[in-house]
Amino acid sequence: MIFFSEMFVSEIIGKPVIDCFEEKVGNVKDILVGFPQASATNKRFFPRVSGLLVDLDPGPKNKVILLGDIDLVGRQFVSTKSVKERVISCELKADDILLGRDVLDKQIVDVQGARVVRVNDIKLAKVENEISLIAVDVGIAGIFRRVGLEGISKNIARLFRLKLEPSLIGWNYVEFLKTEKNKGKLTIPHKRVEELHPSDIAEIISDVHSRARTAIFADLPDRTAAEALHELAPKIQAYLLTTIDTRKAVSVLEKMPVDEAADVLGDIPDEKAEELLRLIKKKKAKEITSLLKHHDETAGGLMTTEFITFDQDQTVEDTINKLRETAPSAETIYYLYVVDASKHLVGILSLRNLIIAKPSTKLSEIMIKDLITIEPEANKKRVADIISKYNLLAVPVVSKENEVLGIVTVDDVVDFIIPPIAKRKSQMLG
User: Fold this and answer.
1) Could you identify which of 136, 340, 367, 424 might form a hypothetical disulfide with 347, taking C-beta atoms 3.0 to 4.6 angstroms apart as the criterion?
2) What does the pLDDT read at residue 181?
3) What average pLDDT score do residues 67-91 get?
4) Domain segments of the chain: what residues?
5) What mean pLDDT is predicted for residues 55-82?
6) Contacts of 267 (CB under 8 A, 6+ apart)
7) What is the mean pLDDT of residues 1-10?
8) Is 38 helix (H, G, I), strand (E, B) or coil?
9) Do 3-98 and 193-293 show the same overall fold?
10) CATH of region 309-416
């Protein structure tokens, strides 16, 4: 049985390794761990320390001494069970994971705070009689500990009556993920990122490095990925769509509202945009292509073509029945757009007025005929002014012939006036 008490990785790396007669064997260079995969039958989340990477003295560098040959791991030294000449060492394998090299200074997602933080130190403890990684320190105390200033920092903190305690995140809330190149490694929480709000996911993706962005985004369900993509800055949107698998990119775009998909495709290289449009369902691709013809700073560029129109001679009962069938395909049904036989916009009806009207009433009898519309060439500011002035949830974009081309919803205007936090952060950082 190995003698060990709770300590941090920074307290072990660099310490001398001695044999049972106190003769020096070498120095600890790193700590080798195995990362178990949690499953229905395997509830173990804590990575187990399997050996130490040691610079032998004298002898070859970077040799692994397995934990079975070690008697004690302490803050002052590590001791082996046998004499120096009988200590068995082996080579480090290409896929081995080392705490100092692969986890320290890497990023993790704090799921409770929905934030990205850096691993400043790692706490080890006995779990089921094995030395295991139980938590990571993401606070400033971990940095002081690593540079050997923990004692001084505590004295300063005590002088100013401050608490300088470790800021620990338990490893049971973290799942280890290798990026595609198996070099930089990222940790994401066991509570899946997909369970967070799309805005939180977008902020997390914005805060991590490029390879990690792709890894997180590619692992999200298509619907969640589509919602998060809309919250990201255009440069990150374009990066993700051009680095993830093409099939995944197509699936995500098909889950997005037409206007949002058009916004994203408008920011990526034309060749890639054309490739994705060829693979998207024809009807949606046609609608996206139509929107791409408009400048993205105009009402035509802001609008969505996912809306529903109703004939003015329809009854309330028929309209409600149609809504049940078609509403899932529309972005918003707060307003109903009423047209004549030539598809010209003749009125607008709120969902509230529809519900309180008698079933046999025709839409022409209860619709609002004093229309507020906007032309596709109108700039963003004019669109925002109209929606704000008249307290609208959406405004129809009409052609010169008064045909409805699309609608601009209030959330599109809110995004323009107050961009989502992930986009604001990206804009501030350039």
Assistant:
1) 367
2) 34
3) 92
4) 3-98, 193-293, 309-416
5) 91
6) 234, 235, 237, 238
7) 90
8) coil
9) no
10) 3.10.580.10
Beta strands in 128-278 (DSSP E): 130-137, 168-170, 174-178, 185-189
Q: Pick left, alpha or beta for residue 182 (phi over 0 → left; psi -120 to 50 → alpha; otherwise beta).
A: left
CB atoms within 10 A of CB 252: 27
Bond prior to 376 in cis (omega within 30° of 0): no
Q: Is the pTM of this model over 0.70?
A: no
Taking the C-alpha atoms of residue 196 and residue 395, their distance in angstroms, rounded to an integer, is 31
Token duo for residue 393: 């949830």
Which CATH superfamily does the domain covering 193-293 fall into?
A: MgtE N-terminal domain-like (1.25.60.10)
Query: Class assignment of domain 3-98?
Result: mainly beta
Check whether 353 has a pLDDT greater than 50. yes
Helices (H) and strands (E) counted in the chain, each on its own, are 18, 22
Residue 196 in tokens: 């967070």
Task: Report the candidate in 22, 78, 75, 71 with the shortest Cα–Cα distance to residue 55.
Answer: 78
* DSSP secondary structure, 269-325, as one string: -HHHHHHHHHHS-HHHHHHHHHHHTS-TTBHHHH-BS---EEETT-BHHHHHHHHHH
What is the spatial distance between Cα 126 and Cα 425, in angstroms, rounded to a whole number? 41
Q: How far is CA 10 from the centre of its chain?
A: 30
Summarised one tens digit per residue, pLDDT across range 45-65 is 688 999 999 999 887 788 999
Q: Residue 43's pLDDT is what?
A: 46
